[in-house]
Amino acid sequence: MKKVTILDLVAAKNDSATLTMTTAYDATMARIVDDAGIDCILVGDSLGMVVAGHENTLEVTVEQVAYHCRAVRRGAPRPFLIADLPFMSYQTSVEEAVRNAGRLVQEGRAEAVKLEGGVAVAEQVAAIVAAGIPVCGHLGLTPQSVNAFGGFKVQGRSSAAAKQILDDAQALVDAGVFMIVLEGMPRELAAELTAEVTVPTIGIGAGLGCDGQVLVCTDLLGMNPDFKPRFVRRFIDGYGLLRGAMTEYVDAVKSRRFPAIEESFSTPTLTKESDSSPEHRVEEG
Ligand code: KIV
User: Is residue 137 within 8 Å of 180, Cβ to Cβ?
Assistant: First the structure.
């Protein structure tokens, strides 16, 4: 499969091709995702919740995103790779925003960065884009504003709130974003926004009217039995399957059924005196 570039993502808007995106945080998952043919991987600040077990994304740092992003790039060379600018890494100033976006490209090997907000961060977006780094926007239920929202709540339900999101989207497009993630908003609003903007939109809890969809990898794999919001579809019971395998392993070890003879080594048998060099050693089955 061919390497996905920003040109493929942007072209999808006109081609009416539906874009696929998921998150990944390590090389092992990234390899699976790449192999499955995904267009785009997001190293989201959701890693604070998924990897570190925090209750929100606010403690995540640029270093952590860069570390996980580098691991994901090693596992998945083909998909387009986007890294999240974490909370307080871009809100404080335009200079900070450009410097931290640069770090995610240089240290994390990301091909683009994502940040949350609209009009309020348009200056930062324009400056990062001017530095040659593609920017993906993120509107609606933006998790870095969880405290301002009073929880992870669907946004844009009133006509004033919907209008603000539409204005934010236009501000992001004017500032130069190549794509916008729409999270946790009424499907009618997401569809209207998608029809209005010239860049592709990627929905999560925003209905079918977007140009593509993103889900957190562990959500779509059913890895957390306690988390099943309306917008998540579990494509597998990952938790149940992995737990079952782990239980079997524990049982096999305790009952001394693991390892078997075939899963262990014996003292090497040397075929000839001259075969004693490491290259000529014959490993017993
Ligand atoms: O951090 C993240 O994983 C995200 C997606 C949910 C879009 O921002």
Answer: yes
